Amino acid sequence: MTTHATPSAPPSDTVALRQPGPGLVPLGPARTALFHALDDLFTQLAAQVEAPAVVGPPLLPAEGLARLDYFRSFPHLGVSAGRFTEEGIDGLAAGSAPADVSLAATGYMLPSATCYGLLLSLEGQEVGAGQRLTSVGRCFRNETHYDGLRRLWGFHMREVIYLGTSQGAAEHLAASKEFITALAADLGVELSYEPANDPFYDKTGSRAKLMALDPVKYEFLAEDGTAIASVNRHRNFFGERLGITTEGATAHSSCTAFGVERWVHAMELTHGSAESALARLRDVRG
Q1: How far apart are CA 177 and CA 194, in angstroms?
Q2: Of the candidates 58, 81, 62, 80, which has an alpha carbon nearest to the alpha carbon of residue 70?
Q3: What is the pLDDT of residue 282?
Q4: Which residues form the Aminoacyl-transfer RNA synthetases class-II family profile domain (predicted)?
Q5: How far apart are CA 207 and CA 69, in angstroms?
Q6: What domains can be seen in the chain, in order of their start residue?
Q7: What are the b/e assignments for 161-181, b being 16+ CB within 10 Å?
Q8: pTM attached to this predicted model
Q9: CA-based angle 233:116:164, to the nearest 5?
Q10: Alpha-carbon 33 to chain mean position
Q11: With the C-alpha atoms ordered 13, 185, 134, 279, is the resulting torsion angle positive or negative?
């Protein structure tokens, strides 16, 4: 991945970029520099655990997500990829508004998390003694409301995933937790750590109840309660559903996720501005 060096003189967000719609927040020069500098720091975890960088698929097959129980748990968050029908295309060419013409289903969804595309891409594979990967992708979620960089229609998620043994999955999460805690301390970001409260569609469903009894996801929260990172224990769920094996046995998996725009928000919350946050980053990098 290309390294984006922190500028010696932080850029200023003097470019007037307007929000074109709810949940659609463009980043000016200073925020963009902060975004790239933070993501470069996140890749240090990938380097530490020897996770090579890959680029995941831009769309996900709805059929594959269904096999992973995505729609049973999060049908309200999904964003479908549609295409205009032939009649719709004729209407557009004649001057009709896009909202007034028909869309046809494609069978694909926009990603809501980076790991889904990577895991689906490993279906049926043997990962040997263990496989680690890292990727950053733009993710999309249909939320009930949007709030600055805290909650967006589209955002970037850096993930570092592990597939292999149960012990290896646990060790990956332990290393990730230690890394995130140390990184936040270096950046001056105050974090709390607690079980996630995922937005399950059916709060009384079996998956939501199991999550409450035995949390498999923990979040790191900024001082205003924004979840900016998480560590996730999948057990052998994805290994079973996707036929992924480790030395002949069903693979266990775990992943670490960083919401890049949310870290930009947390740094601004802590240091007052993107420019001040970049100055802190320069100090951390020496």
Answers
A1: 12
A2: 62
A3: 86
A4: 132-286
A5: 10
A6: 29-77+112-285 (3.30.930.10), 80-109 (no CATH)
A7: bbbbbbebbebbbebbbebbe
A8: 0.90
A9: 45
A10: 19
A11: positive
The tokens for 54 are 């890959």
b/e map 16-54, b = 16+ CB within 10 Å: eeeeeeebebebebbbbbbbbbbbbbbbebbeebebeee
CB atoms within 10 A of CB 144: 8
